[in-house]
């Protein structure tokens, strides 16, 4: 029996964040004053989760927002 487990959006954000941070180690030095690493492992800028460009997570979020009947 084949089973596909889909990662949650937050898991995808965290995976893309790790990839982005690995590639640009200097990111934290530049944004240290505005960006905070919280206990959940995600980066936050002004109390909003930072969604990196890696992994097409932004596209996924926008697609889900546009398909939702609720206002995001």
Quick take:
With 72 residues, the protein is an alpha+beta fold. It has 3 helices and 3 strands, in the order H-H-E-E-E-H. It has one domain.
**Strand arrangement in the largest pleated sheet:** 1-2-3
Number of helices: 3
| Strand/helix succession | HHEEEH
Q: Specify the biggest β-sheet.
A: 3 strands, antiparallel
Shape, principal axes of CA atoms:
globular
The domain count comes to 1
Q: What is the average of the pLDDT values?
A: 78
β-strand number: 3
Describe the structure.
- It is a single chain.
- This protein has 72 residues and is an alpha+beta fold.
- The chain has one domain (9-67).
- It has helices at residues 9-23, 27-31, 57-67; strands spanning 35-37, 43-45, 48-49.
- The protein has a 3-stranded antiparallel sheet, with no helix packed on it.
- β2 (43-45) and β3 (48-49) form a beta hairpin.
- The longest helix is centred in the N-terminal third of the chain and has 15 residues, at 9-23.
- The radius of gyration is 14 Å and the shape is globular.
- The chain starts with 8 loop residues before the first helix and ends in a 5-residue tail after the last helix.
- The model has no long low-confidence stretch (mean pLDDT 78).
- It comes from Tanacetum cinerariifolium.
- This is Putative reverse transcriptase domain-containing protein.
- Keywords: Nucleotidyltransferase, RNA-directed DNA polymerase, Transferase.
């Amino acid at each position: 029996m084949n089973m596909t487990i889909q990662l949650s959006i937050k898991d995808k954000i965290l995976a893309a964040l790790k990839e982005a941070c690995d590639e640009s180690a200097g990111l934290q030095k530049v944004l240290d004053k505005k960006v905070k690493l919280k206990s959940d492992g995600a980066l936050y800028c002004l109390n909003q989760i930072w969604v990196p460009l890696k992994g097409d997570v932004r596209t996924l979020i926008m697609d889900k927002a546009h398909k939702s009947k609720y206002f995001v």
